[in-house]
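Need DUF2878 domain-containing protein's 3D structure for a figure. Predict it.
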Amino acid sequence: MPAFTALFQFLAFDIAWASAVAGGAGGWPWIGAIPALGVLALHLFVSRAVIAAELGAVLAIALFGILLEAGFMGAGLVNFAGHPVLGVLPPVWVWALWLGFASLPNGSLVWLQGRPVLQAGLGLVFGPLAYWTGAKMGAAAMPTAGAFLVIALAWALAFPVIMAMAARLSPRQPTRTPVDLDHGAGGRPQGK
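Structure prediction for DUF2878 domain-containing protein:
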């Protein structure tokens, strides 16, 4: 994925995340979900050469995430604003978030493929940070500080699983990071 497209997708997902969370908190879950679905549509357009495999990966990752959220809800770790689907699954705005997020492993986050320790570290930090931010925005309630720790540990395990699912179901060639581009494969600066 070209660097500009990857950056655009990542920023678009950040906007979609904020929109979905605000929609969930404000009682407008369907409106808030639209940008996340737009991120998914953009990703599938960019991935049109491998759309069948990528759609399968996105749906599998989204299902994994929805079940993870249902587990968090069932354990009393988080309560989302909005109506649960079928009484036990997260509200529709959370589903939209997962569909949008599921486009990132083979999109703007493809450079993380093959780096499970980094994936786990990012999950450990940014997983609970997303819940904390969502709770501050009024889209979720977290009963205890211990819930953040459990969610952090769960995300440290879940994020590498998500990345492995993406790599297995719709393999992509990892792109080089900006550091790799500046220093080359051996870590030494390249001549200009």
